[in-house]
Amino acid sequence: MQVGILYSRIRKDEKLLLSELRDRGHDVVKIDVRDLQFGLTEAPEVFADLDVVVDRCLATSRSLYATKFCEAYGVPVVNSAATAQTCADKVQNSLALAGAGVPTPATDVAFTKEAAMESIEKFGYPCVLKPVVGSWGRLMAKIDSRSAAEAILEHKATLGHYEHKVFYVQEFVDKPGRDVRVLATDGEPVAAMVRSSDHWLTNAAKGAETEAFELDEEAEALVKAASDAVGGGLLGVDLMETGGDGADYTVHEVNHTVEFKSLNGATDVDVPAKVVDWLEAKAAQGTKQEVMA
């Protein structure tokens, strides 16, 4: 098959994917979105004859718009623009999960400092304030006191971008020093790992230690439900262990341009091989549908 890779920087994740595709004899076209002009009706020449495009853009804005253009041109893209839109925005992400009945941390969204402070006081200390768009744990704050809340809210209110005027306040989940990252293809788990740290943020990008994790039936069901809630695709589903009554996990977010280099190193699963297996099946399914049409 002919595969296009949308990118703005080739990281280790993309190198693993490119290597697997080429080892299987697939034609790969690297598409640096920084060099393109996307017209409203005519696709750039580089998109001609591609069976599938994989969005690996680093910047959220580029990812969102590039996938929309791919779909407008009739080019199959992973992940879909709708899935990207839902996953890229924490508010839409949380609404999708809650709307599908997936356990997710209690969350308030407020538009003024005063309203946000009411939510913070309602949740109590500690609680968490997150940017509505962001990754790698950046600009997230664990709020331990009213004075800290006042300072952080004032700081956010003075920042220029309108997204900082949307206050996303969430309960603090007392997880056991780790969270669970699952890579899934259309809700089917490929591999899972735990990310452990003494810090309350357990992102691998912040230096958390990683090791393989075996999902139980409840976790597998939640991964499928979370994937379906955001539209499916190649996704990273993040869970926290709660150990409370009822559900033993809560899903705090689903990622649409998921990184997998740490997962590939932490488990015995050949992650890029599994991803390419899935891409081959998606491309074959698209060809079959074209023939039937």
Q: Summarize the biggest pleated sheet.
A: 5 strands, antiparallel
| Strand residue content | 15-25%
Look at the helices and sheets and give the structural class.
alpha+beta
| Helix residue percentage | 25-40%
- If you average the pLDDT, what whole number results? 90
| Cα end-to-end separation | 20 Å
- Estimated radius of gyration: 20 Å
The unreliable regions are 287-293
Number of strands: 13
What is the number of helical segments per DSSP (H or I, 4+ residues)?
Answer: 9
Order of helices and strands: EHEEHEHHEHEEHEEEEHEEHH
Mass-distribution shape: globular
Question: Strands of the largest sheet, in order across it?
Answer: 11-10-9-12-13
Please render the helix and strand layout as text.
Layout: E1 2-7, H1 12-23, E2 27-32, E3 52-55, H2 60-72, E4 77-78, H3 81-88, H4 90-99, E5 107-110, H5 113-123, E6 127-130, E7 141-143, H6 146-158, E8 167-171, E9 178-185, E10 188-196, E11 209-212, H7 217-230, E12 234-241, E13 249-255, H8 261-266, H9 271-292
Parallel strand pairs: 1-2, 1-3, 3-4
Antiparallel strand pairs: 5-8, 6-7, 6-8, 9-10, 9-12, 10-11, 12-13
Helix pairs in contact: 1-9, 2-3, 3-4, 4-7, 5-6
